């Protein structure tokens, strides 16, 4: 396609490139553990759309001003404005050229505004000599502490995106062979690429990065941490993100420059709410843990119940949903309704994540538990009841329902060992020891993380990084047995009459000691 420039657009682009080149200081190092993240550049030579070029220029200028600079820049799609015309990519080349002169390497994936043939005509160096997926632009960017896989979700026509079978097969094989923390990146959201199940089944898949919506945001979708990037200058949230990597975590920082639904042409056209949004969001930080302890085996693969025993006659109430174990507390099994591991354990570390989905039942029998394990009582000596929305589940240790680590909504918090605490024959220090030191639960609907260590007769429980049970030695703890995810709750005339196990579990790993 012939390159068509207006004289004004050519002068603007040339001036921006010159300005950036002068900004680029010699001798500034690049840092392989610093990654810049762009999306939705929508580059265009249209003289009327100065905001899109100015937005990219400002983002590039800020990268060049860093010391050290990021070794890598990832651009997550919609590089072009006018559906992949060659002229758009020529403009983008001019805007990005100062980066190459300073050692900052950029890598891109495609969005719905992009076209592969036009892109490679302008950027032939971006085409892989031996593409891992035919007719698709996928790549892997390696850094010391984490790698990034850039996927091609462009369908060349529709606004929505997706992955073809060949790309999905390559991705599954690549993730299975991976041995480092991994970020999956694409232009379209995780609902369109359909990779959530694959990610939740592999603890090394840390987060999903994407663009398309022009709305800088972090949320959990289908059990995966997702980060939507701002546009560099088109509309919506305007700016970019920086990611700092260490062995322990990835820290993302939002650099928000502006917000608008349509670029204002006069100062008085700026909506005050846009300024407030920009001030509020600029500088937001999110942290993604990267460290994964060695020696752990996967107990749940994210796709089926291999390694687990579902209750006989359960009728699919324990099920796999979007890569997590989902339970509705309605098992039709006649006897034991718990979900048991096939593996029997002695001394072990168990890591798992869980969340309570909802609490439709108000429990009138909840109690306020005191630090010694007793329950608060009134003047008459009777326990003081609390009526609270409640759900109830837990993790059975070594095959014993009595020795369960509780999941519930009582004020004392999860991690409590109900059967041991309520056993009056237990020594006082044991009943106090199985009572949480702190309530570390996150709000209903959010994911929590248990780290349970069982060694000999001693149990230690961390919840969301806090030691709720620092370590308690429990007489009579069985020497060996499987773990179970607990069923709780019953219905009468279609209504709950006790707290139901409306729970989900994921990322279940064990290490025998």
Task: Give a written overview of the molecule.
- It is a single chain.
- With 513 residues, the chain is an alpha+beta fold.
- The chain folds into two domains: 7-289, Purple Acid Phosphatase, chain A, domain 2 (4-Layer Sandwich), CATH 3.60.21; 297-512, Exo-inulinase, domain 1 (Jelly Rolls).
- It has ten helices and 29 strands.
- The chain has helices at 7-23, 50-64, 86-100, 116-122, 165-177, 190-193, 196-200, 272-281, 418-421, 428-433; strands spanning 30-38, 69-76, 105-109, 139-142, 147-150, 182-185, 205-210, 217-221, 224-228, 236-245, 249-260, 285-289, 297-298, 308-309, 318-321, 324-327, 339-341, 348-356, 361-367, 385-390, 393-397, 400-407, 448-455, 458-463, 466-473, 484-485, 491-492, 495-496, 503-512.
- Strand 4 and strand 5 (147-150) form a beta hairpin.
- Helix 1 (7-23) runs parallel beside helix 2 and helix 3 crosses helix 4.
- The radius of gyration is 27 Å and the shape is elongated.
- The relative contact order is 0.10.
């Amino acid at each position: 396609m012939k390159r068509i420039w207006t004289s004004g657009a050519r002068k603007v682009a040339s001036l921006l490139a010159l300005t950036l080149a002068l900004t680029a200081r010699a001798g500034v190092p690049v840092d392989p553990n610093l990654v810049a993240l762009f999306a939705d550049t929508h580059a265009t030579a249209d003289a009327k759309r100065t905001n899109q070029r100015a937005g990219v220029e400002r983002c590039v200028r800020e990268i060049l001003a860093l010391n050290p600079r990021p070794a890598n820049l990832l651009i997550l799609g919609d590089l072009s404005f006018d559906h992949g015309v060659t002229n758009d990519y020529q403009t983008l080349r001019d805007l990005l050229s100062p980066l190459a002169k300073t050692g900052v390497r950029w890598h891109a994936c495609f969005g719905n505004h992009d076209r592969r043939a036009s892109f490679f005509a302008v950027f032939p160096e971006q085409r892989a000599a031996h593409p891992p997926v035919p007719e698709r632009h996928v790549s892997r960017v390696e850094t010391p502490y984490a790698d990034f896989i850039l996927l091609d979700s462009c369908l060349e026509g529709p606004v929505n995106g997706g992955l073809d079978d060949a790309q999905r097969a390559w991705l599954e094989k690549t993730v299975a062979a991976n041995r480092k923390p991994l970020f999956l990146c694409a232009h379209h959201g995780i609902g369109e690429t359909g990779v959530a199940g694959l990610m939740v089944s592999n603890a090394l898949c840390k987060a999903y990065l994407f663009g398309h919506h022009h709305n800088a945001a972090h949320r959990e979708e289908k059990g995966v941490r997702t980060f939507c990037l701002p546009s560099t200058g088109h509309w919506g949230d305007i700016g970019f993100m920086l990611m700092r990597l260490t062995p322990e975590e990835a820290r993302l920082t939002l650099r928000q420059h502006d917000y608008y639904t349509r670029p204002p042409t006069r100062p008085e056209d700026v909506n005050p709410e846009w300024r407030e949004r920009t001030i509020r969001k600029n500088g937001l930080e999110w942290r993604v843990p990267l460290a994964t302890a060695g020696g752990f085996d996967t107990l749940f693969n994210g796709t089926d119940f291999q390694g687990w025993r579902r209750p006989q006659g359960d009728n699919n109430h324990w099920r796999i949903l979007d890569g997590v174990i989902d339970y509705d507390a309605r098992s039709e099994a006649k006897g034991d309704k718990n979900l048991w591991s096939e593996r029997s354990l002695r001394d072990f570390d168990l890591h798992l994540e869980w969340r309570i989905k909802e609490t439709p039942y108000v429990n009138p029998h909840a109690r306020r538990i005191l630090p010694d394990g007793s329950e608060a009582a009134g003047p008459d000596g009777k326990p003081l009841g609390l009526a609270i929305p409640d759900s109830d589940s837990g993790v059975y240790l070594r095959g014993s329902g009595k020795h369960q680590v509780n999941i519930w909504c009582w004020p004392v918090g999860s991690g409590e060992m109900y059967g041991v605490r309520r056993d009056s024959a237990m020594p006082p220090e044991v009943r106090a020891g199985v009572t949480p030191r702190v309530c570390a639960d996150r709000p209903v609907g959010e994911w929590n993380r248990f780290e349970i260590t069982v060694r000999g007769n001693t149990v230690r429980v961390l919840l969301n990084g806090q030691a709720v049970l620092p370590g308690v030695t429990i007489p009579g703890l069985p020497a060996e047995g499987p773990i179970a995810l607990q069923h709780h709750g019953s219905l009468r005339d279609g209504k709950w009459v006790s707290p139901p196990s409306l729970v989900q579990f994921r990322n279940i790993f064990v290490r025998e000691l």
